[in-house]
């Protein structure tokens, strides 16, 4: 457009000069030519100079005002600039949104340049590594020798796991993710939970193997003896009874493991039908009486006609485990009392014994799988080390709390405290009473029935 206008203007000057020359006004023609072309040059030079000056100003400068073709050119330039400005603002807002989102990530994220200098970091990385500002080397903030060695070795296929002083007691995995030549990312993730779960899994496998190996070794030994030696009948019988006892232990272990697995696999709360507690306690008491073999006084104290909303199978299993323990850890002549009462709206199911008691330091770990105060005694009495873990699971699934109160040489009380929402008024149970008092189908093995010749607790 500028070119066309310039050519038109120059053409007009030339035509005017030519016309004047034709009219024999030579001087005037030269004047028109000089003034016209000089004016045109000055006009362009003037605006070029303004444009040049404007281009040298900092950003956000006002465009110069232009006349004629230059006015149009400046208008057009202004439009482009406004469009660019809008796009830049949009990009900046988008970047801001991405930064805000990345800031919310629980994982630490640091963008590093190829010299491992911090380019950008999110809030989690700033909190975890104390990173501030940019352009400082990352090892200025992350100084752990494990990380420095990781950075130096340059093998980023695996993360490196370590503790950080900013979060005592927790474990973190730090991983460098190369993106391109210019940048790489450092991602820091809290792996405390997964490390704990992995450790638990390893411990569990080791424990189960150990628990099974011990009776298995005994069984293998006796079978070997029976095969190799020609024993008299009473010796043979003694051997076979030992084999039966050890296989019973393994059977109970597998059954308890299956019960635990079932409890863990079902995440939803058990049914909320009302279970009649007293008949359930009577049924379990009748079953475990054989284990006591008349050596203990077994007392039922059902002080409330109320019921419990939950699974009869699971409640039966919890009470059975508590009662079995009470019998196994209470010397002859002791008293075992199973109680049910409602106090302050809470339903309290308790098993109290006058047994050997438990030292206070063991109480916090008692419900861990395979935790025993006295390993030998637990084995001798046919324990699997899983009974209280099952009770704890049942309690959790019913939103109940397991309280353990015990004194060495005096006895122990295990109480399951159910919230008011789990306590059912007597009227609500009429329909389910008969079901609750029956023998549930998926109970763990009844320990009493499986080891008729279990040694008596001391
Ligand atoms: P176990 O099969 O070994 O009895 P539990 O999980 O049922 O496993 O119990 C864990 C440990 O708690 C037992 O080994 C025992 O030392 C202790 N314990 C449980 N109940 C009682 C109790 N009523 N009196 C004394 N000690 C108990």
- State the total count of DSSP E strands: 13
- List unreliable stretches of 5+ residues: 431-458
Summed over residues and divided by their number, the pLDDT gives a mean of 88
Put simply, the count of helices is 13
The coarse silhouette is elongated
Please give the share of residues in helix. Answer: 40-55%
Q: Helix/strand/pairing class, anyone?
A: alpha+beta
Helix-strand layout with pairing:
Blueprint: H1 2-22, H2 26-55, H3 69-104, E1 108-113, E2 118-121, H4 123-129, H5 145-153, E3 160-162, E4 172-178, E5 183-190, H6 192-228, H7 233-265, E6 274-276, H8 277-292, E7 297-302, E8 307-309, H9 312-328, E9 335-343, E10 346-353, H10 375-380, H11 387-397, E11 401-407, E12 411-418, E13 423-424, H12 433-437, H13 447-450
Parallel strand pairs: 7-9
Antiparallel strand pairs: 1-2, 1-5, 3-4, 4-5, 6-8, 8-13, 9-10, 10-12, 11-12
């Amino acid at each position: 457009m500028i070119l066309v206008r310039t050519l038109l203007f120059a053409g007009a000057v030339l035509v005017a000069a030519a016309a004047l020359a034709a009219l024999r006004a030579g001087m005037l023609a030269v004047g028109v030519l000089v003034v016209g072309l000089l004016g045109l040059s000055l006009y362009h030079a003037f605006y070029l100079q303004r444009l040049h000056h404007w281009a040298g100003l900092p950003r956000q400068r006002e465009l110069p005002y232009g006349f004629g073709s230059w006015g149009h050119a400046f208008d057009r330039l202004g439009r482009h600039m406004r469009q660019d400005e809008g796009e830049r603002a949009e990009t900046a807002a988008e970047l801001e949104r991405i930064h805000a989102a990345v800031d919310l990530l629980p994982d630490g994220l640091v963008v590093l340049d190829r010299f491992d200098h911090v380019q950008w970091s999110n809030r989690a990385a700033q909190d975890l590594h104390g990173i501030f500002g940019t352009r400082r080397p990352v090892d200025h903030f992350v100084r752990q020798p494990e990380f420095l060695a990781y950075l130096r070795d340059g093998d980023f296929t695996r993360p490196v796991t370590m503790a950080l002083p900013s979060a005592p007691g927790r474990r973190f995995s730090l991983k460098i993710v190369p993106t391109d030549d210019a940048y790489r990312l450092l991602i820091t993730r809290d792996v405390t939970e997964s490390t704990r779960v992995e450790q638990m899994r390893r411990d569990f496998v080791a424990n189960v193997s150990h628990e099974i190996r011990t009776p298995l070794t005994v069984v293998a030994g006796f079978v070997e003896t029976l095969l190799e030696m020609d024993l008299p009948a009473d010796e043979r019988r003694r051997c076979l009874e030992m084999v039966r006892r050890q296989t019973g232990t393994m059977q109970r272990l597998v059954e308890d493991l299956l019960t635990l697995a079932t409890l863990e696999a079902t995440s939803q709360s058990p049914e909320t039908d009302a279970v009649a507690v007293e008949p359930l306690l009577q049924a379990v008491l009748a079953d475990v009486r054989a284990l006591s073999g008349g050596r203990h006084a077994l007392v039922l104290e059902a002080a409330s006609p109320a019921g419990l909303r939950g699974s009869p199978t699971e409640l039966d299993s919890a009470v059975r485990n508590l009662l079995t323990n009470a019998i196994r850890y209470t010397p002859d002549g002791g008293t075992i009392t199973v109680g049910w009462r409602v106090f302050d709206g809470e339903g309290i199911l308790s098993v109290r014994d006058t047994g050997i008691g438990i030292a206070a330091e063991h109480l916090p770990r008692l419900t861990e799988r395979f935790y025993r105060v006295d390993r030998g005694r637990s084995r001798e009495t046919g324990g699997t080390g899983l009974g209280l873990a099952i009770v704890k699971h049942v309690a959790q699934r019913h939103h109940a709390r397991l309280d353990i109160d015990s004194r060495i040489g005096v006895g122990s009380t295990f109480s399951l405290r159910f919230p008011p929402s789990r306590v059912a008024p007597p009227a609500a149970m009429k329909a389910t009473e008969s079901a609750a008092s029956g023998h549930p189908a998926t109970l763990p093995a009844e320990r009493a029935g499986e080891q008729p010749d279990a040694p008596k607790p001391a």
